[in-house]
Amino acid sequence: MADECNVSFIIPCCDDFSFLRKCLSTLMALEPVPQIVVSDASKDRVSVRSLCDEFGVDLVELHKPSRGKQLDAGSEIAKGEILVFHHADTEFSQEHYHSLNTLFQNDSSALGGAFVKDIVGLYPHMKYFVWAHKLFTMHIGTMYGDQSIFVLRSVFQNLGGFRGMPLMEDVSFSSRLREYGTVHLIGPPIRSSYRKFIKEGRIKRKMKNVWLVFLYRIGLNPDRLAKMYYFDD
Predict the structure, then answer these.
(1) Can the peptide bond before residue 188 be classed as cis, meaning omega within 30 degrees of 0?
(2) pLDDT per residue over 79-102, tens digit each?
(3) Looking at the structure, do residues 138 and 199 belong to the same domain, yes or no?
């Protein structure tokens, strides 16, 4: 199935221009070349538009940043049977791509999942607990956006997508995907930029993220959470 180049990458962008060029260059080098959709809500629309034209990728533009709305809008023009929701500052290699293709080629029951998160690069002392982290995420834990969540288009549509949520769209979708069926956590580990963790401090940033997820779990409106998150940034 994946040999027929039926994978679409959807990239939400909001002032991520410094990462976008490298991201597009990396994804365009994959074989077979996937469809790439950039869903942009940046202040500098012209630069993003020019970059997308340069690489020949599809572009959707939104007036206001909202991760969920951007991902949903990108999925509407995606043509692939497999949708990959990928952050501009997250690495992706041919090895990751091969792992994704192999999963859907060899397992007819596969419906979606995410990549194992590289936690050792950010927290070196966690190298002894990688297996536990993987096991937890595979069976219980949330699959976050920076793990390049992937899903069959049909399943994504049945679940109602990301429902336009401005924040916690990945937490919500991860829960609904688990309820829908068995998810797969695949390697190799995937890594995103550590810039926010380095800027704010690893522990402080982690605690902030945990706190926001907790507030969402107890019912705080995602719109309020988005204001808290982006105001601090």
Answers:
(1) yes
(2) 999 999 999 999 999 999 999 999
(3) no
Residue reference for tokens 């939400």: 12
Are the beta carbons of 161 and 71 closer than 8 angstroms? yes
Statement to judge: residues 131 and 78 lie in one domain? yes
pLDDT tens column, 67-78 = 999 999 999 999
In single-letter form, the type of residue at position 182 comes to T
One domain for residues 38 and 134 = yes
- Domain range for residue 171? 2-193
- Rounded to two decimals, the pTM is 0.87
What count of other Cβ atoms lies within 10 Å of the Cβ of residue 53?
10
> Going along the chain, which residue ranges are E strands?
7-13, 35-40, 58-61, 82-85, 112-117, 149-152, 184-190
Encoded amino acid at 53, one letter: D
